[in-house]
Every structure is written in structure tokens, then in C-alpha cells.
Specification:
The chain has twelve helices and eleven strands. It is globular and about 65 Å long. α6 crosses α8 (about 230-245). The protein has helices spanning about 20-35, 50-70, 85-100, 110-120, 120-140, 150-165, 205-215, 230-245, 250-280, 290-295, 300-315, 325-335; strands spanning about 45, 70-80, 105-110, 145, 180, 195, 280-285, 285-290, 340-345, 350-355, 355-360. The chain has two domains: about 15-250, Rossmann fold (3-Layer(aba) Sandwich), CATH 3.40.50.620; about 270-360, Uridine Diphospho-n-acetylenolpyruvylglucosamine Reductase, domain 3. The chain is an alpha/beta fold and about 375 residues long. The strands form two sheets. Strands 3-2-1-4-6-5 form a six-stranded mixed sheet, sandwiched between helices. A five-stranded antiparallel sheet has the order 7-8-11-10-9.
């Protein structure tokens, strides 16, 4: 666990954690200040599943709303995957919000059907539909921030998952404190950028669970979180306990890696932005062009980041262009001065011609 503000000690009884709620609240305030997540008087949409993390987040922001002048709204998305249990979760969140007089919104979707129709995995379809719903609620109430209940524990789990799947420095951040909310299918329009913020990012899951117990929030249990066939659950329930037994304070070490990766990625991205501006030849909403020689003069790591920035300008920071796609594209650029091309996901087309590298967003059906 991070050295600052830690209140959880192994072996203590529940009643001895009475100081934990205020420490968790203090960590939330620290995260909001450190990462500039929220401003005075903002409207905030809180994504609420009904579990301990999201309920703790909603309750803390509700407690702080008068101090900071916030307007709080809750949004619950029912994926339609767990039958009556999911419907009961939806009702629980609605009743919880009525108890605290928090305006709430909910939506139920058939994610399996959406996944089949759009040829996506259940996880991909669920994420897209969920984030679209959050964006629509934020737009409806005039909010630019959607608060999610991700904790430091979620961040280190994500770091490990990214590591197993193959990742660069950015993936070692785990989960960033803030990120732009992106709608991948491009059919949602909003004049202002909506941000995902994670005020619990300095808290550990055991702390949010304790907070929920102390305040009697009675969160719902999603039994699918116990299925170790799901990679994240296996990391959480089997791998991390083994690592803690072998290495002791492994959570602290992994969290430090998340923070180091975040700081170094920000520095490298700044360099890449500066170099991109120097080699940029053409830019509009549908296509970008850079000098091939200028791109190849950069170090390999900065080449990848420049190309990634080009992709993000045409699509969004959240896209389906992988590290492998970037490597393939740069390989084509290295081998050819002209008359070469490469197709990337989401209708992106790269063309190398007469010493220029074009990245073009094609019209997709």
C-alpha cells in the first residue's frame, strides 16, 4: 500500500477500523487535488454498480457535496447478464439513491445480443454500451465528469493483466487517475469533452470495504466476481495472494511501478507531442501527414509515441490500434520511401508516398 495515509493493518478487528472512513475520505480529497479531478461547483455523474467500491465513492462524494458545491447524480447500467440478480442490483441502487435524495438514472441492455450484432466480445460490448450510457447521462445533466470506483487495488491488478498480455510503459500505469470518455462507434456527439475520473485511486479495496461496513451501506455481491476462470478474478483471488505470501508488500511495489510509469509516460508523451508538431505537414479531422525522415530521426520509443498520437488525433485515446499494429506500421515506413500502405483497425489507412507518411481515416459503413 502507498506509505502515505495508510490506515489498514493486517489482523485488526472490524471495530478497530473506526478511523478508516475518515482516512478514505482524506485520500479521496488528496486524489482530487493531486490530479485536478474535480472543481468547485461541478456536476458529477457517479457510476454505481451497487458494489462496495462504487457505493463508497457515491457516499463520500455525497458527504462532500455541500463543502465543494457539487451536484451529484448516479448512473447504473444493467448488462442483462445475471438475470434476477442484476435486476435486484438495479433496484438496490435506485432505492439507495432515493434514501440519500440523489437523482439517479439506469438502463438495462441485452449485452449478449449487442456483442453478436457488433461482432464483439461480451467485455467489449459491455464497456461500449456502459460508457455510452454514462456519456448520455453526463450530457443530459450538463456534467463533464463521470466518477468511477476504481481503486489502487484495481490499478495493480490491471498492471499485471497488461503485463501478461504484453504492454509498453503506458500499460504499466494500470488505471490512470483520469482519462477521456470515448465513444468508439462515433455516433454520440457532445460539444464538451467528458472525463472519467477515479477519486478512489489512492485507496485500497480493503479500505473501501471497511468504509461500507462502518456506514452500513450493505453493498451487493456480484457472484461473477468469484469466477476464477475470468482473468481479473484469478489475478485478484489467486495470483496476488501468492505474490503477497512470497514477496510481502508486493502491493506497495506494484503501486510504485504504476506511479513511476505514469510520470515517465507523461514526460515521453510531451517530447513526442513536441516532435510531432515539428514534423507535421498536414492535419485535419480526416487525415494527417508527417515527414518520413523526420519521424525516423526520432528514437524508436518516440517514433511509437508519435504514431500513437497521430492515431489518437483521428480516432480517440481509447481505440483498437494495438502495439503490434504500431510496430507493423513503423516497419513499413522504415522499409519504404514511397508507394507503400498499411491498413489499421477502425478504418485507418496509412500510406507512405514521396517521403511523407499519411494516416487517413476512411469512411466506414
Amino acid at each position: 500500500m502507498p506509505n502515505s495515509l495508510s490506515v489498514v493493518v493486517e489482523g485488526l478487528h472490524d471495530w478497530e477500523y473506526i478511523a478508516a472512513p475518515e482516512a478514505v475520505t482524506h485520500k479521496v480529497k488528496e486524489a482530487i487535488l493531486r490530479f485536478r479531478m474535480l472543481e468547485l461547483g461541478e456536476k458529477i455523474v457517479v457510476a454505481v454498480s451497487g458494489g462496495p467500491d462504487s457505493l463508497t465513492l457515491l457516499h463520500i462524494l455525497w458527504r462532500l457535496k455541500d463543502e465543494f458545491g457539487w451536484q451529484i447524480f448516479a448512473a447504473h447500467f444493467n448488462h442483462g447478464l445475471r438475470g434476477e440478480e442484476a435486476d435486484e442490483d438495479e433496484k438496490f441502487v435506485k432505492d439507495f439513491c432515493e434514501r440519500f435524495q440523489i437523482p439517479s438514472f439506469s438502463r438495462k441492455s441485452d449485452i449478449k445480443a449487442i456483442a453478436r450484432e457488433q461482432k464483439l466480445s461480451i467485455v467489449q460490448a459491455g464497456r461500449r454500451a456502459r460508457y455510452r450510457f454514462f456519456a448520455e447521462v453526463a450530457s443530459q445533466v450538463g456534467a463533464s465528469k463521470v466518477a468511477l470506483g476504481h481503486t489502487a487495488t484495481d490499478a495493480i491488478e490491471t498492471l499485471l493483466i497488461n503485463l501478461f498480455r504484453g504492454t509498453g510503459t503506458d500499460g504499466l500505469q494500470g488505471i490512470p487517475p483520469m482519462s477521456p470518455l470515448t465513444i468508439l462507434d462515433g455516433q454520440f456527439e457532445n460539444k464538451n469533452q467528458i472525463w472519467l475520473v477515479r477519486p478512489l485511486i489512492l485507496c485500497w479495496r480493503i479500505e473501501t470495504t471497511t468504509y461500507a461496513k462502518v456506514y452500513g451501506l450493505q453493498p451487493r455481491l456480484d457472484r461473477s466476481n468469484l469466477d476464477t476462470k475470468i482473468l481479473r478474478n484469478w489475478v485478484r483471488l489467486e495470483l496476488l495472494p501468492l505474490l503477497r505470501e512470497r514477496f510481502g508488500k508486493v502491493d506497495d511495489a506494484l503501486w510504485r511501478l504504476c506511479e513511476l510509469a505514469r510520470d515517465e509516460s507523461a514526460f515521453l508523451n510531451q517530447i513526442a507531442e513536441e516532435q510531432l508538431s515539428e514534423i507535421l505537414i498536414h492535419a485535419d479531422s480526416q487525415k494527417l501527414a508527417v515527414s518520413r525522415d523526420g519521424l525516423l530521426k526520432a528514437t524508436k520509443g518516440i517514433q511509437r509515441r508519435i504514431f500513437r498520437l497521430m492515431v489518437e488525433r483521428l480516432l480517440s485515446p481509447l481505440n483498437e490500434v494495438s502495439l503490434e499494429h504500431v510496430e507493423e506500421a513503423i516497419g513499413v515506413i522504415e522499409r519504404h520511401f514511397t508507394d507503400a500502405s498499411y491498413h489499421l483497425p477502425q478504418g485507418l489507412f496509412m500510406q507512405v508516398t514521396k517521403g511523407m507518411v499519411w494516416l487517413i481515416k476512411l469512411e466506414t459503413k
